[in-house]
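Input set for joint prediction.
Command: fold jointly, output tokens.
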Amino acid sequence: MATITAAKTSPGSDAAGAADAAPRTRGIHHLALNTDDMKMTADYYVDVVGMKLVHAMKIPTGLGTGEGNRGNPPFENLRHYFFDMGQDSLLAFFEMPKGAKEKGDRDALAGMQHVAFSVTPDEFEAIQQRLKARGDDFLGPIEILPDLYSIYFFDPNGIRLEACCHPKEGAHPNVVGGVAQSRAVARAELETLSDDPAWLEKRLAGFKD
Ligand SMILES: [Fe+2]
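tokens >
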């Protein structure tokens, strides 16, 4: 493992948070979820959701229990698989031993309520067809924001998934632009948190008008 060194402060970082400053993060590297059946999970994410399996491993001995653990699940040699979820981002799963963990509460603090994937209009239709072919229920499509449609469904682990589509954007959905909000509307909401003018201006720095 390479030594992690502190990133140098980039020019213009003083302006971070301003409307014209780029975000400091570049999107999700990987999202790590849990299953107790990796084969079932791999079959579902490849065949139904439409991702490719790109890495299949067992975690090396020593990282599950004992001093080598750096936050991994506390079991040795777990399967840890990665799927390409598009746009250079990965979805990962750990396979817990059967019976070792109870199903979680997705509404718990620090739990994951759901994960939403952005899909093209063609894929939005195709995933609905694949769910129907399996006899899986799904909710929607629902227009959750103007011109933004979603379906909601559950993977076989009980993880709540969402597929989001901007039909008018075609193959190049404008994810961030699709949730654009006026500064005034955002301010009205933020004022329910604080009436400190300096705090409000800092939090509104990402809004253009
Ligand atoms: Fe959502």
